[in-house]
Design brief:
five-stranded mixed beta sheet, 20% strand, 2 domains, seven-stranded parallel beta sheet, 271 residues, alpha/beta, 11 helices
Length: 271
């Protein structure tokens, strides 16, 4: 008979809640929370290592949990069964499949990104909403872009909301962060042409050549791109707007430009 944690006052509960709610704790402990069967499965496929695997025995067996994370858990992983009350306390959402994992935070750098003559990158300046970041990772996964680069981030790449809204695609796509100056220099050093999505641009996106080594650059919904990127990018492009509003949700804008770039490339090599 397996031992089950039943007290909501167990230190494990505070550990999970702190990691869910505080980016400082995630950075300090280099640990993230991965919740949900789909998200965990994609994390496993990406080689993420789990430190603690917490599960509710009434929803999933110990054998099934071990099979789920078998390829990446490692010998040091701790498997912990908890009661319904404890699981409800630490669960970020209702439909998780009965498993929550504490995992080693992936660390990727600009130098890890693959660069060739067909590389396509998404650059996000100072993105604030983890839900938007997660949704953009889904777009990046669908188009199989070369990477998502977050400059001067105002949200944690592995915020639980980012993981959830990405359906785990934060693990299937290379996502890195750095300051704007470092990223601009890296783009130039690698011969990557940058296109800044900007409301006052003269050129429309569909009339621009988005083939070759390209980075599509997007700002926040509230303020758009800073002057550093507006003037630092190689080209400025815009989406035609025929209505009353002058801009789209950043995720929608990303999807439009990314798939136009893929259309120009004939979708070959990516699907």
């Amino acid at each position: 008979m397996e031992s089950v944690i039943t007290s909501p006052k167990n230190p494990l509960v505070r550990e999970v809640l702190d990691l869910q709610g505080k980016s400082k704790e995630r950075n300090l402990r280099q640990t993230i929370v991965v919740e949900g069967l789909k998200e965990i499965t994609l994390a496993v496929s990406a080689g993420v290592r789990f430190r603690k695997v917490i599960y509710r025995p009434e929803l999933i067996s110990a054998e099934a949990v071990r099979a789920l994370v078998a390829t990446s858990a490692g010998a040091g992983s701790e498997f912990i069964a908890v009661s319904e009350a404890v699981f409800a306390k630490i669960s970020y959402r209702e439909s998780t499949g009965g498993v929550i994992c504490l995992a080693e935070k992936p660390e990727k750098q600009l130098r890890d990104l693959p660069v060739d003559d067909r590389s396509l990158f998404i650059v996000l300046e100072s993105i604030e909403k983890p839900g938007n970041l997660g949704a953009i990772c889904r777009v990046a996964d669908a188009a199989r872009v070369s990477g998502v680069i977050v400059c001067d981030p105002r949200t944690d790449i592995y915020n639980p909301n980012a993981i959830r809204s990405s359906l785990g695609c934060v693990f299937t796509v290379d996502v890195v962060s750095a300051d704007s100056e470092t990223i601009l220099n890296w783009l130039r050093q690698n011969g990557i042409k940058s296109f800044a999505a900007e409301l006052q641009a003269a050129d429309f996106y569909h009339e621009s050549d988005l083939r070759g080594r390209v980075a599509l650059v997007f700002g926040t919904e509230a303020t758009g791109l800073t002057d550093k990127w507006i003037h630092g990018a190689d080209r400025r492009i815009k989406i035609p707007m025929g209505g009353v509003i002058d801009s789209l949700n950043v995720t929608t804008s990303v999807a439009i430009l990314v798939f136009e770039a893929m259309r120009q490339r004939g979708f070959s090599g990516n699907f």
